[in-house]
Structure formats: structure tokens, C-alpha cells
# Entry
Amino acid sequence: MAPKKTAPKPAAAGSSKTEEKKKPAAPAKEKGTKDGKVEKKSAKPAAKPAAKPAKPQVKKADKPKKDAAKAKSKTASKKAAINKAKKVQTKVIKGAFGTRVRKIRTSVKFHRPHTFRPPRNPKYPRKSVPRRDRMDAFNVIKYPLTTEAAMKKIEDSNTLVFLVHTKANKHHVKAAVKKLYKINVAKVNTLIRPDGKKKAYVKLARDYDALDEANKIGII
Amino acid sequence: MGKVKCSELRTKEKKELLKQLDELKTELTNLRVAKVTGGAASKLSKIRVVRKAIARVYIVMHQKQKENLRKLYKDRKYKPLDLRAKKTRAMRRALTKHELKLKTKKEICKLRRYPTRVFAVKA
# Structure
């Protein structure tokens, strides 16, 4: 009991020194009380707010370890104080100069340092309104073909044949057919005719019949 | 449908204009299909009418849009480039009236000290 009694006392005193900044109220409490029982109680709350190295000290109650830790904390605080003093000293000696430290170069090459590049935030849009999209569904599909070969395609391969805007691609054609005629498309094949127009073979999905759709559109 | 007139279109709202545009465009596709499948002459002559009607709707839409934008940017310092005065390229780069009026202190002094005098000789 005796060593245990003495253990929390110096631990409390030691922790109070390093942890003064954290709880100014607590050390005052510890210093005031000299009763054994009250000290133990105060040691416990002191141990809780104190840093982790202080806590295992109190539990183990090992004198040399405690001293070493106390010494460490003392030297750490001493080092910080020394550094601060050095800084002040250089400032005093050199005045407004001499406080910048040389950068450590880890490569022989010199690359342009990265500067801050903010994202664009214009004060006014250059164009008042963006251009409207010219490739709408009506513009993509010009008209369906009604040649004999096209008719054959409708009956046999479940495909519709359209003449299409030359700048339209297969994705455009697929989307346009979906929008205009409300049918699902399996695939689109395109070619450019010798007279410069684009022909699109639009194969419909299984659950749609090209013949019915052709009747709806009006080609038959 | 009757003739599409600009004066009537200007009274309409944007949504209504868009709807009308859609209707006209579907009508045009039907007419084009009729042309391919050998339609009646009345249908074929209607193609031009519908095309011009679509053009009128676009005209009114854009005019309204531009007007609203100009209102929006009316008293702002920085306007989009297409809302600024067009004039000519050289005129846009010329000195402003204020800049032409500026004089150096030296010049102001001179003018004050030695103004052009105007005399009248008595007959």
C-alpha cells in the first residue's frame, strides 16, 4: 500500500507539470490536497486528462520507467524552448534578414514550379445563347425508301430502309427512329450512295414487325 | 390548319411555340413520305407551305429570345459579344469619346493662358 500511495503522488505532480496547459484547474486541485485518500482521487482524474504515457505509469507504479518518461517529457519541452530561443536569437542578431531557410533540392533538374490555376469563372458568357442542336430527330431521318429492294428487306429481314442526313451516325439514326416511330431498334447499317445521300438499314427488335410499322408510317 | 402568321405567333408562349413546331415537323415528315410513295398533288404543294411555317416559328422564337436577353443584360457592365453594338471592327477599336477628350495638364495650362481671341473690327 505504501509504495502505491507514494506512486500516484509523484505521478500526479509530474503529470501536473507537463499537462499544465491542458487543465489549469486540475493541478491546483492536486497541489492543494495533501490527504492520502483525496490525493488518490485527484490522481485518478489527473491521470484521465493526462496524456497516454502518464496513464500506464500510474497503473504500473514503476519508479525508473516513470522517471524516464518524466525526463523525456522534460527534455521534449526543453528542446522546444531551445528552438524558440534560437529563432529569437537569429532575429535579434540579423534583424529583418536571415530567417529564411534554404530549400532542400533532391534532384539536379529544375522544373517549373506548379502555380495555382483557378478554374474558369467568366464575367460574361461570350455567346449570349449556345447554338441550338441541328441534329434533332426530324432532321436526321429524311424519308423512308420504297424501292423493291427496300420492300424485300421489310418482309424478309424485319428492317426498314431510310434516307438519312449525311452527317448523322448510327447512334443518331437509332435515337431518331426510336423517338419518331416509337420502335426498338436492334442494329443500324449505313452506307453512302453514289449520289451522295446516306442510306440506313434499320433492323427492328424481335418484338416489332417491320410490315406493321411500315403500314403505320405510310409506305406500302 | 389555316395560314401561320407571325403576328399570331408573337402572342404565343414559348411552350406553345415549341408544340406547334413539333406538329409542323411531323406534318412535314408525313408529306415527305407521301412524296416518295406518289401522293396527291395537293399534298406535294403543301410541303413548301409547311417549310415556311416552320421557318416563321423559329424566327419568332429567336426574336423573342434575343429581346429577353437584351433586357436581362440591359444595365450590366459586361455583355455577351453578340449583344454589344456591332458598328464596324475599326470603329469598335477606335478611342472612345471620353478618351479623345482627355488633355494633359500642360495642354490645359496652355489653352487657359493663350486662348484664341476673337476680335471684331469696328467699321
The first strand of chain A starts at residue 141 and ends at 144.
